[in-house]
Amino acid sequence: MRLARVLLACCALLAARAQAHVASNGFVQINVHGRELAGSVELAIRDVELAVGVDANGDGHVTWGELRAGQPALQAYFIRHLSLAAGGAPCPIRLGSVAVNHRVDGNYAWLPLTASCPRDTRELEIRYGVLSDLDPSHRGLLTLTAGTLVQTAVLGGEAAPLNLRVHQGSAWRAFREYSEAGVWHIWSGIDHLLFLVSLLLPAVLMRRHGAWEPVCTARPALWSILKVVTAFTVAHSITLSLAALDVVRLPSRLTESVIAASIVIAALNNVFPLVTEGRARIAFAFGLLHGFGFASVLADMGLPSGARLISLVAFNCGIEAGQLAVVLGVMPIAYVLRREGAYRRALLPWGSAAIAMLALVWLVERAFLAA
Q1: Which of 67, 213, 266, 304 has the fewest CB atoms within 10 Å around its CB?
Q2: Phi and psi, residue 205, nearest 5°
Q3: Does the pLDDT of residue 22 top 80, yes or no?
Q4: Residues 259, 355: one domain?
Q5: Residue 251 is part of which domain span?
Q6: Does 8 have pLDDT greater than 60?
C-alpha cells in the first residue's frame, strides 16, 4: 500500500504537469542568398516564459498582449544565445516582430530573422545555446536552404558549434543527424515509451487462474518481448514512411489523441486483463498511429531533397536504437523482479493505473482542449 500511495502521488504530480511530456524543441530556418541570410526562429511559448518570463500577471497563461510586451526581452535573449558566422567572421542577427505559429504541441513564438555576412557564405557556423542553462534537454531543429539544396541538423545540447558547407550536402552527415534525431525523439517522446512499456511489463509474467504468475524461464519472456517490439517497429515504420513521403497523412490532433488513447488502453489492460497473449496485435494496431506521430517530427525537420531516403532510414534506425536501449534497460530488471509479490500485486497494477491516468489527461487535452 505504501508503494501504491507513492505511485499515485507521482501520478498526481505528472498529471498536474501533463505538458511536460512534450519534447522541448526550437526551430531555426535559414535561407542563404550570397552574403544575405533570411529566415526565422521559433520557441514554444511555454519555453519563452521559462526563458524571459513574459507572464506578467502570473496566471499561468501567456496572452498575446503579454507576448508582445515581452518582445524586446525575447529578441535580446535570442541575440545572446544564437550566433552565426561565415568564414570565421560574425554575421550580426536582426529579429523582427513576434508572431504566433500553431504546432501540434502548442503555440510557438515566431520571429523573422535576417543577417548580413561580410563575405559570401560558403561555410556557416551556428552556435545555439537557447535554454542551455535552464533545460539541457532542449534542442533546436535547423533547416538550412541554399538554392535547391536543403540541409537539416539538430542544434544544442553539449554539441560543439555546428559548421555546415552551405552548397555541399553530405549523405553521411545527413544519416548521422537524422539517426541522432530519431534517438532523441523516442527518448524525449515519453508517450511512445509509456505505450511500449505498458505492453512489456506483463511480458515476464503469465496469466493463470485469474492471477499473474512469474514465467519459469527467460525464453517465454524473451519471445513475448520480441513479438511486441517487432510488431510495434513494423507498424510505425510503415506509417512513418508513408507520411514522410506524403503518401498518407492524418490530422495531427487525431493522431496525438489516439496515441494518448492507446496508452490508456494498454495500461488498463494490465489492471483488467482482457488481452494477455495478443499484446503484439495491440502493439501493431496502435503502432500504425504512433508512426504518424513520429512523422510529425520529420515534417518539422523536412527531408533533404538530395538524401530523402537515407534520412528517412536514418531517422527510423535512430528510433529503433533508442527504443532498444529502453527495452534492454527496463526488461532485465523486470525479469529479476518478476517473482516478487510487489511486482505482480503493486508495481504492475498501480504503475499501470498511474500511466493510464496520466495518458487520460493527455487525451482530454489533445482531443478537447488543444487550440
Answers
A1: 213
A2: -125, 165
A3: no
A4: yes
A5: 181-369
A6: no
Beta bridge partners of 116: 36
Which pairing describes strands 25-33 and 36-44: parallel, antiparallel, or unpaired? antiparallel
Q: Are residues 140 and 195 in the same domain?
A: no
C-alpha cell at 302: 523536412
pLDDT digits (tens, 9 = 90+) for 220-256: 999 999 999 999 999 999 998 888 777 887 887 788 8
Distances (CA, A) of 368 to 254, 256, 257, 360, 371: 11, 12, 9, 12, 9
Cell digits of residue 220: 517465454
Residue 284 lies in a domain: yes
Q: Does 49 share its domain with 164?
A: yes
Q: Does residue 131 form part of some domain?
A: yes
Q: Helix, strand, coil shares of the chain as percentages rounded to 5? A: 55, 20, 25
* End residue of a domain, out of 123, 140, 169: 169
* DSSP notation for 301-353: H---TTSHHHHHHHHHHHHHHHHHHHHHHHHHHHHHHTTSHHIIIIIHHHHHH
How distant is the alpha carbon of residue 153 from its chain centre?
15
Taking alpha carbons only, the member of 319, 23, 8, 343 closest to residue 178 is: 319
- Helix/strand/coil (H, E, C) string of 73-132? HHHHHHHHHEEEEECCEECCEEECCCEEEEECCEEEEEEEEEEECCCCCCEEEEEECCCC
Task: Judge if 187 and 164 occupy the same domain.
Answer: no
The reply to whether 150 and 232 lie within a common domain is no
174 located within any domain? no
Q: What is the pLDDT of residues 114-150, one digit of tens each?
A: 999 998 888 899 999 999 888 887 888 888 888 878 7
Give the residue among 303, 351, 355, 354 at the shortest CA–CA distance from 192. 355
227, amino acid identity: K
- In this predicted structure, the answer to whether residue 359 has a pLDDT above a threshold of 50 is yes
